């Protein structure tokens, strides 16, 4: 009997704050119209002032107030009456709001009217009507994706389940509602969310977990200065300690809650406290105090009726009177208890509740299907991106291959052109200077003539004479291979040829388009090509440093620059082309180029 009464008390506390937790202030809803004064009064818990202000606004015959504004005020009035525990007044305001909602096109205001009707019926213990409006609110939140209204529908549904003795199912809905509160960062609703979870866990006899949530709720309520919520949290903590058998702690928190209820003038909560005191006295066999506290609770419930608490009072008064042999009084209390129980547990209510559970199950399945569809669409997009990436990659590879093919062909063309030009230049020089046809070994010791760079006036500027001088220069280059000397300069050639700078320049410019440095580099590059071809023919590994020094260059940088300028190819590219040419002709070639 004691445990049953304790569960009844906890159930009521959960119902009260669950409904308050659902009824988040209208400032949280994205409404077309809102009154900032109403919002501020509600946020600061001045419910009496808010109710008075709203009543004054509705009493005025002001045509400037639109139908939607009236709808807002009636919804707000229902909220204030719920906070003041005037449930009949809350239902009256909700009915006015529902009538105005039938003429409104503002879906937010309409859904708020359904919400207030669900809360009002929940507080009155009329679960079939509460379930009807909860279902409408649930459908609206599913259709619009309104998380706040969805949270309200979940909490209302959990409240119905609590009253129907199905706490385990209620816990799942409370947890989902708390998760939405955390996602929204709705600080003002954290107290209500923690309270709901704590009360539900008490019903499941998980007292340690319940205390964790209730302690969080009490600390937040104190910090946020929410006395109405703190009162309910203290009441629930007292019920938790009573269920744990800690009567001293139960009494401490019961008195804390009772004190706040007196300050707030909350008759319903005072009735709850007196009902709990009556149950505690009955469990201690203090029948006199059980009747005293039960009578007070019943008196308070006459002005603020609530079926669930009335059942609790009726049960206590029935048992106490029976033990005192007051059979007539006990019979009256028993009949009252039986009527309330039948009204609250009718078949239609259970049927409607089961139907709602089926609909919620379908909603979960639909959400699962929707998630699967989203996953499929996401994978399709990923596949499309992958196909596009593969297509772009294939284009890039095709362009790259085409570039390499064109580059290779271009190098082959340059190589063939270079070989052709080399042959033509040799034939031209041999034709022009027959002395070059003689296969004479280099002397290695050219006779140096006196320096005539400033005094040689006997050298005529006749083109024939210049051509002869140029022929002597070419012969010296071809046979003496002067270009192999890295330190070769203009002065050395002047002394060797017995001429001066002016006549040597005239001889070079008159017979070729090159200057002195270009001519020397051409001979050196040709020598480098000859070394490369010879090494490849002999399958010798090509060493770049050996080549450029053997060809007469001072450095690898000047060697690469001159080779590229002269042939259009790098030494490595020239070697590769030579290797391919020799391979095609069946000649072995080297595999490396250093």
Question: Could you give the topology of this structure?
Answer:
Layout: H1 2-22, H2 36-43, H3 47-59, H4 67-83, H5 87-101, H6 107-123, H7 127-144, H8 147-163, H9 167-184, H10 190-203, H11 207-224, H12 227-243, H13 247-264, H14 267-283, H15 287-303, H16 307-323, H17 327-344, H18 347-432, H19 463-480, H20 490-497, H21 501-511, H22 516-537, H23 544-550, H24 556-567, H25 571-584
Helix pairs in contact: 1-6, 1-8, 1-10, 1-12, 1-14, 2-3, 3-4, 4-5, 4-6, 5-6, 6-7, 6-8, 7-8, 7-18, 8-9, 9-10, 10-11, 10-12, 11-12, 12-13, 13-14, 14-15, 14-16, 15-16, 16-17, 19-21, 22-25
Protein architecture, described:
The chain has 594 residues and is mostly helical. The protein has helices at residues 2-22, 36-43, 47-59, 67-83, 87-101, 107-123, 127-144, 147-163, 167-184, 190-203, 207-224, 227-243, 247-264, 267-283, 287-303, 307-323, 327-344, 347-432, 463-480, 490-497, 501-511, 516-537, 544-550, 556-567, 571-584. Among the domains are: 2-233, Tetratricopeptide repeat domain (Serine Threonine Protein Phosphatase 5, Tetratricopeptide repeat); 433-483 and 493-511, no CATH class; 514-594, Arc Repressor Mutant, subunit A (Orthogonal Bundle). It has 25 helices and no strands. Helix 7 runs parallel beside helix 18 (347-432). It is rod-shaped, with a radius of gyration of 52 Å.
């Amino acid at each position: 009997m004691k445990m049953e009464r304790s569960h009844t008390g906890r159930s009521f506390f959960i119902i009260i704050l669950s409904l308050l937790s659902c009824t988040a202030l209208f400032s949280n809803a994205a409404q077309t119209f809102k009154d900032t004064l109403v919002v501020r009064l509600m946020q600061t818990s001045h419910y009496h002032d808010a109710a008075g202000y709203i009543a004054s606004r509705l009493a005025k015959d002001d045509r400037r107030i639109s139908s939607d504004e009236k709808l807002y005020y009636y919804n707000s009035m229902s909220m204030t009456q719920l906070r003041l525990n005037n449930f009949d007044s809350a239902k009256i305001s909700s009915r006015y709001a529902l009538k105005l909602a039938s003429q409104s096109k503002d879906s937010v205001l309409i859904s708020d009217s359904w919400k207030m009707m669900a809360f009002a019926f929940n507080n009155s213990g009329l679960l079939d009507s509460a379930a009807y409006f909860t279902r409408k609110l649930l459908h609206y939140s599913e259709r619009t994706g309104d998380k706040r209204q969805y949270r309200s529908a979940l909490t209302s549904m959990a409240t119905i389940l609590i009253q129907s003795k199905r706490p385990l199912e209620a816990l799942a809905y409370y947890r989902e509602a708390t998760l939405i509160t955390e996602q929204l960062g709705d600080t003002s609703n954290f107290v209500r969310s923690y309270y709901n979870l704590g009360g539900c866990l008490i019903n499941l006899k998980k007292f340690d977990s319940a205390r964790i949530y209730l302690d969080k709720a009490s600390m937040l309520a104190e910090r946020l200065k929410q006395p109405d919520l703190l009162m309910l949290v203290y009441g629930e903590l007292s019920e938790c300690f009573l269920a744990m058998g800690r009567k001293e702690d139960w009494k401490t928190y019961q008195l804390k809650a009772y004190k706040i209820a007196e300050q707030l003038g909350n008759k319903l909560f005072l009735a709850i406290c007196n009902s709990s005191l009556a149950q505690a006295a009955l469990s201690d066999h203090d029948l006199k105090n059980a009747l005293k506290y039960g009578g007070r609770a019943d008196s308070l419930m006459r002005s603020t009726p609530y079926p669930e608490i009335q059942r609790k009072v009726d049960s206590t008064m029935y048992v106490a009177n029976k033990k005192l042999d007051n059979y007539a009084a006990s019979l009256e209390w028993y009949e009252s208890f039986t009527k309330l129980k039948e009204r609250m547990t009718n078949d239609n209510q259970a049927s409607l509740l089961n139907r709602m559970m089926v609909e919620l199950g379908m909603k979960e399945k639909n959400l699962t299907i929707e998630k699967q569809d989203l996953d499929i669409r996401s994978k399709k997009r990923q596949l499309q991106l992958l196909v596009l990436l593969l297509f772009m990659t294939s284009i890039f590879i095709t362009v790259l291959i085409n570039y390499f093919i064109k580059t290779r062909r271009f190098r082959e063309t340059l190589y063939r052109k270079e070989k052709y030009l080399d042959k033509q230049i040799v034939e031209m020089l041999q034709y022009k200077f027959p002395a070059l046809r003689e296969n004479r070994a280099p002397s290695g010791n050219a006779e140096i003539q006196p320096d005539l760079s400033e005094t040689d006036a006997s050298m005529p500027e006749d083109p024939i004479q210049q051509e002869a001088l140029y022929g002597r220069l070419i012969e010296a280059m071809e046979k003496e291979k002067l270009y192999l000397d890295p330190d070769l300069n203009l002065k050395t050639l002047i002394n060797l040829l017995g001429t001066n700078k002016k006549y040597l320049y005239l001889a070079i410019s008159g017979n070729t388009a090159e200057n002195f440095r270009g001519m020397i580099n051409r001979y050196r590059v040709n020598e480098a090509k000859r070394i490369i071809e010879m090494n490849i023919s002999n399958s010798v590994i090509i060493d770049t440093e050996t080549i450029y020094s053997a060809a007469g260059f001072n450095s690898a940088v000047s060697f690469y620059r001159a080779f590229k300028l002269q042939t259009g190819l790098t030494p490595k590219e020239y070697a590769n082309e030579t290797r391919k040419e020799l391979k095609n002709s069946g000649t072995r070639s080297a595999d490396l180029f250093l």
